[in-house]
């Protein structure tokens, strides 16, 4: 039986809501049955009508929705939160307290203090919070992780990760661009580039390497005059095993569309993954020729090959990564955390917010090293 899904946010004019709806339908594990899609009631009503929902299950606000769905015999099993960042914590709290599991877009919330409070709510409720770091669900990202954990690179020495975009290279927040508008407001976004794409880079580096830095030194910059949040971030990282790392995230890097790239270097070799060529993983052994592993090929580990949704040679990427998150979310909601051990959850969300907080404090102190332990 499909899980009953509700959604908060994702009304007309929103981008990420449609992505979540497609992902939830990809494996036929979920059925969207309810929503509070917008604070604008007419937007919410039209969205529900377009999605063929029962008008009685389109709600004026998320608090009403949480209470009503918790009281229904056929109420939702889980809610997807696809709102601007400042609403993540209050919406998640309302549904967790109503006994409903949560799938939440990243970053987890607006501040580290808010993240710690939300973690307490998750623990107290006994329900689950799943975070949609979709890039960690790509088959070849899973392959990269498997090869690092199998020791193929030897001892990890450096980690280089970047996420480069150009879409905010001009002050779009001064136009009618809805995405640029709320993402450039500190009270709604919490952070700028570091929260929007920097946390993806941070999570990818940790997910593949298994390492979290002990300390970081950061510089956050707003290159666009008058912009209230950072649009470029540079972070140096030190790890407990002696490894070093660098993270660069930018939304003003002209010529780059969605350039998420990870390179991990060890004593016996290195690997490289680029999201824009997500069907390839480059391995570079020490003193041996480099080789490319392609998605769904016989060179992949069997457990990762099974993640492929289409035959080898057919491009697969962003939507399928979200689909894999939802497929594993369904398994976890039915059978518990052990059914999907690699799925990002509340711990990943808290770590991401701790990273943002430390980077902001470091930058404000002129790049001072900040201990993360």
Automatic annotation (TrEMBL):
It holds the Pfam family GFO_IDH_MocA. Residues 4-132 form the Gfo/Idh/MocA-like oxidoreductase N-terminal domain. Residues 141-272 form the GFO/IDH/MocA-like oxidoreductase domain. This is Gfo/Idh/MocA family protein. It comes from Serratia quinivorans.
């Amino acid at each position: 039986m499909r899980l009953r899904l509700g959604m908060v946010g994702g009304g007309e004019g929103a981008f990420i809501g449609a992505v979540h709806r497609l992902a939830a339908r990809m494996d036929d594990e979920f059925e969207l049955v309810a929503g509070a899609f917008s604070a604008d009631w007419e937007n919410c009503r039209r969205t529900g009508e377009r999605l063929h929902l029962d008008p009685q299950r389109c709600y004026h606000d998320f608090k009403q929705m949480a209470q009503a769905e918790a009281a229904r015999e056929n109420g939702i099993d889980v809610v997807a939160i696809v709102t601007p960042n400042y609403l993540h914590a209050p919406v998640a709290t309302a549904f967790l307290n109503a006994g409903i599991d949560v799938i939440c877009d990243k970053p987890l919330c607006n501040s580290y203090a808010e993240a710690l409070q939300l973690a307490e709510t998750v623990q107290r409720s006994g329900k689950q919070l799943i975070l949609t770091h979709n890039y960690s669900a790509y088959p070849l990202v899973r392959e990269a992780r498997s090869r690092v954990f199998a020791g193929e690179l030897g001892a990890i020495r450096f980690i280089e990760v970047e996420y480069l975009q150009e879409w905010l290279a001009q002050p779009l927040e001064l136009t009618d661009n809805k995405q640029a508008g709320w993402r450039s407001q500190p009270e709604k976004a919490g952070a700028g580039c570091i929260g929007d794409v920097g946390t993806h880079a941070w999570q990818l580096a940790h997910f593949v390497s298994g390492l979290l830095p002990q300390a970081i030194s950061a510089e956050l910059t707003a290159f666009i005059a008058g912009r209230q949040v950072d649009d470029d971030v540079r972070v140096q990282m030190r790890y407990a095993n002696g490894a070093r790392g660098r993270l660069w995230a930018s939304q003003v890097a002209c010529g780059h569309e969605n350039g998420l790239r990870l390179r991990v270097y060890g004593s016996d070799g290195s690997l490289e993954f680029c999201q824009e060529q997500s069907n390839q993983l480059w391995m570079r052994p020490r003193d041996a020729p480099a080789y490319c592993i392609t998605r769904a090929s016989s060179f992949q580990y069997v457990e990762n090959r099974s993640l492929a949704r289409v035959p080898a040679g057919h491009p697969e990427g962003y939507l399928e990564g979200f689909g894999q998150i939802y497929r594993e979310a369904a398994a976890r909601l039915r059978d518990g955390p052990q059914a999907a051990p690699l799925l990002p959850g509340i711990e990943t969300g808290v770590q991401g917010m701790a990273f943002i907080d430390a980077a902001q404090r470091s930058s404000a102190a002129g790049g001072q090293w900040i201990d993360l332990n």
